[in-house]
């Protein structure tokens, strides 16, 4: 469960004014990204449901299957997957191994957590760069999808975007740990909430 705004403010109350302004800016940026992701994820899920339902209706009532349904489903699954990288990071839900963390004290545990976030952030940023170059090669080749003839570079642009957003989320988690007391899995999710298994309320 993500913390309330008041609790997050309290965890930053010890900061000088300049750093407090930075923290507030990051909080607003995170909230803006959450809104965009929420609508995109909802749109993908609705799109998959509509495409699947339409194909079932067409096949059973009119004996005709829409030839592009599978293509649309695959595209939307790709978008959901890479949007999910950022969403999972925001709510502290990515799979992690905690055996080493459980054996150390609270302070050292926090900095081990930060070290893992730094490595993950760097890896996602590197993968985003590789994906960006791959999308560029698709644009240069002019490749399109078989049925709908949609340009692959536009459809696969979500790959570097999703990886980049994931890197940003882990960077914000690093900043939260550097600026705040306690250990944080993301900008709005302290470690204790991430481990509780409570998804009834998220930062979205």
UniProtKB/TrEMBL annotation:
Its main location: membrane. Keywords: Cell inner membrane, Cell membrane, Membrane, Transmembrane, Transmembrane helix, Transport. It is a multi-pass membrane protein. GO terms for biological process: C4-dicarboxylate transport. The chain crosses the membrane at residues 39-57, 72-90, 111-134, 154-175. One of its GO terms (molecular function) is transmembrane transporter activity. InterPro entries: DctQ, TRAP_DctQ. GO terms for cellular component: plasma membrane. Residues 48-178 form the Tripartite ATP-independent periplasmic transporters DctQ component domain. It is found in: Cell inner membrane. The keyword RNA-binding does not apply. It comes from the Bacteria. The complex comprises the extracytoplasmic solute receptor protein and the two transmembrane proteins. Belongs to the TRAP transporter small permease family. Part of the tripartite ATP-independent periplasmic (TRAP) transport system. This is TRAP transporter small permease protein. It comes from Modicisalibacter xianhensis.
């Amino acid at each position: 469960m993500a913390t309330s705004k008041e609790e997050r403010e309290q965890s930053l109350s010890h900061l000088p004014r300049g750093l407090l302004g930075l923290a507030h800016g990051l909080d607003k940026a995170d909230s803006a990204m959450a809104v965009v992701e929420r609508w995109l994820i909802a749109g993908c899920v609705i799109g998959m449901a509509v495409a699947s339902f339409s194909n079932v209706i067409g096949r059973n009532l009119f004996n005709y299957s829409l030839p592009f349904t599978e293509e649309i489903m695959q595209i939307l699954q790709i978008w959901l997957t890479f949007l999910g990288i950022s969403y999972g990071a925001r709510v502290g839900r990515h799979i992690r191994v905690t055996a080493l963390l459980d054996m150390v004290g609270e302070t050292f545990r926090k900095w081990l957590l930060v070290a893992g976030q730094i490595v993950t952030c760097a890896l996602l940023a590197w993968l985003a760069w590789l994906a960006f170059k791959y999308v560029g090669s698709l644009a240069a080749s002019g490749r399109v999808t078989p049925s709908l003839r949609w340009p692959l570079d536009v459809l696969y642009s979500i790959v570097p975007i999703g990886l980049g957003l994931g890197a940003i989320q882990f960077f914000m988690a690093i900043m939260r740990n550097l600026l705040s007391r306690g250990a944080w899995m993301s900008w709005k999710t302290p470690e204790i909430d991430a481990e509780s298994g409570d998804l009834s309320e998220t930062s979205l």
